[in-house]
Amino acid sequence: MNSLVFSTLGCPNWSLEQAADVAVANGYDGIEIRVLDGDIIPADLSPARQAEVRAIMQSR
């Protein structure tokens, strides 16, 4: 089965919370998080920020 996912590349100025809310409201199965805080996600994203992202996604 294929999943329909939403990419944050198309909304670089949105918060992660806003992107997640729009994805849920429009029936997407997931989000490809490519842009975070207005920038491409760095390879060295801090563990604290990773935990914040995980918490945001789990709350949706």
Task: List the defining traits of the structure above.
about 60 residues; 2 helices; two-stranded antiparallel sheet; 4 strands; alpha+beta
Characterise this structure.
The protein is of the alpha+beta class and 60 residues long. It has one domain (5-58). Helix content is 37%, strand content 17%. It is built from 2 helices and 4 strands; from the N terminus they run E-H-E-E-E-H. It has a two-stranded parallel sheet with strand order 1-2. It has a two-stranded antiparallel ribbon with strand order 3-4. The radius of gyration is 11 Å and the shape is globular. The two termini are 22 Å apart.
Mean pLDDT: 93
The structural class is alpha+beta
Task: Please state how the strands of the largest beta sheet are arranged side by side.
Answer: 1-2
Strand-and-helix sequence, N→C?
EHEEEH
Strand content: 15-25%
Identify the overall geometry: globular
Overall helicity: 25-40%
Q: Segments where pLDDT lies below 50 for 5+ residues?
A: none
Distance between the termini: 22 Å
Count of spatially separate domains: 1
Number of helices: 2
Please count the beta strands (DSSP E, at least 2 residues each): 4
The major sheet is characterized as: 2 strands, parallel
Instruction: Report the radius of gyration as a whole number of Å.
Output: 11 Å
